[in-house]
Fold this sequence. Notes:
GO terms for molecular function: zinc ion binding. With 442 residues, this protein is mainly α.
Amino acid sequence: MSKGSANQVPQATYKNAPKLSAILTRAATRMKKSLPSKFSEPRPPLTISSKEDYRPSSISSFLTRLSTFKLATYSNKPPAIDPVAASKCGWVNDGKDRLVCGVCSSSWVLASKEGMSRDAANALIEKQKTQLVDAHKPGCPWRMKQCDASIYRIPLQSPSVLLRDIKANATSFDSLLDDVEIKHPLTSNQLTSLQSTIKLYTLSLSATVSPTQTEPPSSSTPSAISEEPSEKTILVSLFGWSLAPAAERPALTRGSTWAPQMPPRSRESSVVPRQSPNWLSVGLSTTLAPLKRDSDTLLQCSLCQRRIGLWTFGLRPESSTSSRAPTQRSFDLLKEHRSYCPYVVRSTVIPTLSPQTHLMRQTNLVGGSEGALEGWRAVVTVVLRYGMAQRSHLTSGRRPSETHEAGEGEREVVDGGIEAMVEGVKARGGKDLLKYVRGLLG
């Protein structure tokens, strides 16, 4: 019997056995209907050019990939394979533990380590860490070069610019946080220094606007001090929280996923990622008009994509049969960030002064973590640096307005403050400086 006739046997059999053909057809139909039920309902795919997706040095592109990782689809991962590590290697999250490359269209699912011994789980994690690079198709640029280790950090500005952005963001909260209880890791000495620095910054601005005014404004004189944001709003802004724009406040639903435009697959992607934030000191420069608090007011961190509703921190009345007072959940400014957020992990290097140019510059170190601090510590350090410089100028007989100039004046704030501080130490000894530094460190 020839090969051709052998291939025709099943077709002839089906013609002679119509019942068998009907059974097979029904079975195939049932299988097709059952497959979609295991996954979420299909959603319109996101349209984004995959050709533009390979930008390993682009912070906005990195944050776009990071925004696709949801708690419902990618959680409980060690740092070696967490959302930050995967995003640095060019992956987006599309489904439960599923990673997709928008450049080479490669995809794979991370196996669970549930039920494994510790050694077996560690071996699996090491293999998956290697796969973050090797799982890309041959020729994919992500196999050759990934994002720099220091791409996910807080890009600190000069002290006065950072203070300006913090205050502008704090003003947008208005009275939204009046009945919200907050928690933070700052010591009382740090809080006192922060309050003093804010006052010095406000005084410096007033002196800049009115250069002929040599005395501080009296309490009876209308001034910007009465309109200053509260300590609570300053702290919320200091730790990287800002109001989510109204257009980004949809009804809270189960976390969903996203994938770049690529060849059709059996499953479609879902959520469009939020627009990449302006790269201020991310999360601090969002300047919004004050809003009236309502039931859908959201705070967000533009770095870790964490969003949280203010209504969760309101008073919770007890049942009518309970004699206890209503309870209230505190807003922990640090712990509400995701575990991999730069505000939480040691990822930010404090800018140094170049002896040649006297410019503040961000130190880029190989490995990206040597000498790094938690983001919130770095922000506090830079902010208090402004206060230290201003106090030094005041004690040396200089007006704050002389150091609050754009460009060249901003560099003189820090550099001149260090010079004055050194002269003061020589004249009075180092005890005062040592006491001040100990206070900052808690």
